[in-house]
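Hello again, I could really use a second opinion on something today. I've dropped the whole record in just underneath, so have a look.
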Amino acid sequence: MTYIRKPSAGNETAPAPEQSHACGTLLNIGGRPDQQDSIAVSDLSDETLCAQRGVLLTLADGMGGLSNGGAVSRLLVDALQRAFVQCPVDAAPAPWLLELLGEANRRVNQLLEGKEPSGSTLVMALVQGDQLYHLSVGDSRLYLARGEGLILLNREQTYGRKLGLTLLKNILPASAVASHPQRRSLTNYVGMGDLEDVDRNTIPLTLLPGDTVLLLSDGVFNTLSEAEIVSALRSNPDTAAIRLERMVLERRKPYQDNFSGILYRYGK
């Protein structure tokens, strides 16, 4: 099982005086025989780590139907978290995240060398003071919840997104794009060799007190609507994570996918 260090609310972080933060997590096998999702949160109780490097949130979803998906996702988040605590404290955050990913991708490719194809999605968020940096590969999602709004911060790397671009050229009708059987297939994932693309921000997003950063696997957002997700966030992150897990399970979807999430609340 991937380690999840339990956070404690009320710690201060040097870049933002009087900052506090809290975090809730969910990780459920759903109706599948194996758990292929992995999540990890850097140690919020380590004041030095938070002050010097910030908070790192990582979520990976091993690709369903492929062998070693769980092993890949676990290796991925563990490698990122271990490298995080060893990086230079004065490194520029955006290229630093890219460097972390490059090293983790190299390790995943080494794991898979000579084995059947496999891979994992990844969404990673770094909070330094009130600044949010992120990157993602695949279709796991990163949201910002502010007030009653939910903003999707990253772009899915799926065949459906590529098909959507054909609408601009009138190559395919919208109905064909929406019903295409391969629309959810990933076009980019960790473990495919060299990554073709990474979705990321180079200019940080400034967080406001009360903002919640959500990292979610598709087992959550393919089951619950965005309005339902927002409704669960009206409490502290631990309680919100429990509510989201309960809401997914109450749907009783046949063969419910593994589902996971990280809810990080800034400044409150």
